[in-house]
Write a structure and sequence with these properties.
Elements lengths: L2 H16 L10 H4 L22 H4 L2 H15 L3 E3 L2 E3 L31 H4 L2 H7 L3 H13 L2 H17 L11 H17 L6 H4 L4 H16 L9 H16 L6 H19 L11 H20 L6 H17 L28 H12 L12 H7 L18 E2 L4 E5 L8 E6 L19 E5 L2 E4 L11 H8 L7 E3 L6 E4 L2 E4 L3 E8 L3 E8 L11 E8 L4 E8 L5 E7 L5 E5 L2 E5 L8 E5 L5 E6 L1 E2 L2 E2 L1 E2 L7 E2 L1 E8 L6 E8 L8 H8 L23
Antiparallel strand pairs: 1-2, 3-4, 4-5, 5-6, 6-7, 8-15, 9-10, 11-12, 12-13, 13-14, 14-25, 15-24, 16-17, 17-18, 18-25, 19-24, 20-21, 22-23
């Protein structure tokens, strides 16, 4: 930490101690129901930013039906929360963790709760998720689409319950600013969606406890915000929540100041958190979607209150959407780089594991779609949020062709063209380790690759699985051996200091990227093993031959005598038969069936692993709280200066036989010297689009 950050944290700690006098207990809630002195009188409060009257009618029928189906399940108490099917949400226990059976503190002063301790709180993500109140935004959306009062009454009941049971600074739901920011966005949209319900004003502006809660949330964010090494997506959520609420509920003497400060904070931190290309600096694709959504929600709200964010912020948000569109494979799935926790800024549709299609649909409303974008489909969110805007805004300088390289982020895609399907899609990681000194959501994945065939994960990033409570699993899914790259000396490239802390960062740099139409090539290196004795450096070259539909991966470790492990993690749909250094891969039950031949480096000894726990190896996580066994192919050996480890993945067209032809050709295959591929002409760093 910098000296300034140490000072900030000391100031925050002193303030937390001082604020213990401001804690409100449940016994005091009745007293707290009196209106705050700094608030307008109930008769003067208005909620003015309402939706146009025909908004619900514009929601596509398919999206409408999905929302109503999800809302009906909620009326029966059913909801999936981070991999757990819950049936207790008719009136939830806001502090219960269904995973461990523990109950988080509800009365203790918030800043005396260690929310990272599973012993104290249970699985905190499970506890927090319901109190984001996003299941209530789904119910409110269902009411706005159908007028069925059952949905509104359930929202009314649960909101009143939450406000009563969570007075200011009491309990675990006051321990994290990101949760408070997201909750403010939910409250704003619940009020907006219920605008025509006769009980809406009694639930909100004429409900003095509701008014106090909205003010308490904003007071918290004004006093405590993420700074320094923790100013990642958390500070974006905090700023966005404060800006949305101060625009939507301008009922307090501080509202103008809160609005101005949160807008400036959002503008500055959004620029800091993203590269100019639009790629998130956390280098976690899931969080790029999350941050973009938060920024767009805040920008739309500010524009609707005639206090728009600056033009640079709109340009950066557009770049985030455009770069996201460029990263998606043919099934509109993003890379699985870094951490992912399925975080959403706002939920108006039935939950979906992949949020990028919804974000692109909203981006089309706000910015207009580019010719190379994948097709989008309007949903409830894009229709309803889009109804608050005047239509697409013109953003200069948007890419005329689909980018495949983002040099500032060290992220490159090698892929076949849209005319050649199924698509071969390969992500190559040649950028920095992560964002800020702790790089909280980074993985030790320098020079890793993902490869997909028709959107089916073949060489897969295994994912995240968990944040808290299972440290051995958290450590594994972030480690080098859990990624498609090389581990040297029995250790990860970057030094793990805790579940959200990296003490040592491996940083990669791209050496060369070239594309001449029939083939594309990428090479990079990283410095994560220079501290070994002797120092070692890992270099990798990846070449996609679009004609033969082949990926060739060539690795070099230039330090002598180190233990080397090279892992290839297969997607959950992929079956494998390993025979020495050769493997036959197939995925007959996937959405796009296929097969491939994988020739592995003969210099290494190869073994197949699936669903093992001693040690952990051979797992895939499709989302937080989910894990399934999957095949990992692991090669072991030692590094020798000047030696190359070459892997060849040949995708087979329909009807092409799996034979020994590839095995015999691999024996003759020599290592590819760096930059010496005859079929690729170009200069270092040059780039042209796939044709």
């Amino acid at each position: 930490m910098s000296a300034a950050e140490v000072t900030w944290r000391a100031r925050d700690q002193a303030l937390r101690i001082a604020w213990s006098r401001r804690q409100v207990s449940r016994d005091q809630v009745a007293v707290a129901a009196r209106p705050p002195a700094a608030s307008r009188a109930a008769a003067e409060r208005r909620f003015t930013q309402v939706l146009p009257p025909d908004t619900g009618a514009r929601v596509p029928a398919e999206a409408r039906a999905a929302v109503v189906e999800a809302a009906d399940r909620l009326l029966h108490g059913e909801w999936e929360v981070l991999g757990v099917i819950r049936t207790d949400l008719k009136l939830p226990d806001w502090f219960a963790d269904p995973v461990t059976g523990r109950r988080a503190p509800s009365d203790r002063y918030a800043f005396r709760i260690n929310h990272r301790s599973q012993e104290q709180t249970g699985n905190i993500k499970q506890v927090w998720e319901i109190s984001r109140l996003q299941h209530l935004t789904v119910l409110a959306t269902a009411w706005s689409l159908t007028g069925d009062e059952a949905y509104a009454l359930r929202v009314d009941e649960q909101l009143r319950s939450w406000w009563r049971e969570n007075p200011f600074l009491s309990g675990v739901h006051w321990t994290s600013g990101i949760e408070i920011g997201i909750r403010l966005i939910s409250l704003t949209w619940i009020r907006r969606l219920l605008a025509d319900w006769p009980g809406a004003a009694d639930l909100f502006e004429r409900n003095e406890l509701a008014v106090r809660q909205i003010r308490w949330h904003q007071q918290y964010l004004a006093a405590f915000r993420s700074r320094g090494s923790s100013a990642n997506n958390h500070v974006i959520a905090e700023a966005a929540g404060q800006l949305v609420a101060s625009c939507a509920f301008p009922w307090f003497a501080e509202s103008g100041r809160w609005r101005q400060k949160s807008a400036r904070l959002l503008e500055s931190e959004l620029a800091r958190n993203t590269f100019p290309s639009g790629i998130g600096r956390e280098l976690a694709s899931d969080y790029q979607c999350f941050v973009a959504e938060l920024g767009l929600l805040a920008a739309v709200e500010a524009e609707g209150s005639d206090r728009p964010v600056n033009a640079a912020t709109w340009r950066r948000l557009c770049a985030m959407v455009d770069s996201g569109a460029a990263l998606l494979d043919e099934r509109m799935r993003a890379p699985r780089q870094g951490d992912a926790d399925e975080g959403r800024g706002l939920l108006l549709d039935a939950p979906a594991a992949n949020r990028w299609p919804s974000l692109l649909a909203l981006g089309e409303v706000l910015f207009g779609r580019l010719s190379w974008w994948p097709p989008t489909r309007a949903d409830a969110a894009s229709t309803i949020i889009g109804a608050m805007t005047a239509g697409p805004r013109v953003i200069p300088g948007r890419p005329a062709r689909r980018p495949s390289r983002f040099a500032d982020a060290g992220l490159t895609l090698l892929r076949t063209s849209e005319q050649h399907v199924p698509e071969i899609w390969c992500r190559c990681d040649g950028g920095p380790h992560g964002f800020l000194s702790i790089a909280a959501h980074a993985h030790a994945d320098a020079l890793s690759v993902e490869a997909r065939y028709g959107g089916v994960e073949i060489l897969a990033d295994p994912g995240t699985y968990c944040y808290h409570g299972e440290p051995e699993w958290r450590s594994y899914f972030r480690s080098t051996i859990a990624h498609n790259t090389v581990e040297v000396g029995g250790q990860s490239q970057s030094g793990d200091g805790g579940p959200f802390l990296w003490l040592r960062h491996a940083n990669a740099r791209e050496i060369e990227v070239r594309d001449v139409g029939q083939a594309a090539e990428w090479s990079a290196e990283h410095d994560g093993y220079l501290a070994l004795d002797p120092p070692a450096r890992h270099r990798r070259q990846v070449r996609l031959d679009r004609v033969t539909r082949t990926l060739v991966i060539t690795d070099e470790v230039d330090g002598s005598g180190h233990e080397v492990r090279l892992a290839f993690h297969l997607g959950p749909d992929v079956q494998a038969e390993l025979d020495g250094p050769s493997a036959v891969l197939s995925w007959p039950a996937a959405d796009v069936a296929g097969a491939a031949r994988l020739e592995l480096p003969r210099e290494l000894g190869w073994s197949l692993h699936r669903g093992e726990t001693g040690p952990i190896l051979g797992w895939y996580s499709g989302g937080l709280g989910h894990r399934v066994p999957a095949v990992t192919l692991l090669g072991r050996g030692r590094s020798t200066p000047g030696a190359f480890f070459t892997t060849r993945l040949k995708f087979l067209d329909a009807g092409e036989a799996v034979s020994g032809e590839m095995a015999s050709s691999a024996v003759k295959q020599s290592a590819i010297p760096w930059g010496a591929s005859d079929s690729l002409a170009g200069t270092a760093g040059s780039h042209s689009e796939a044709r």
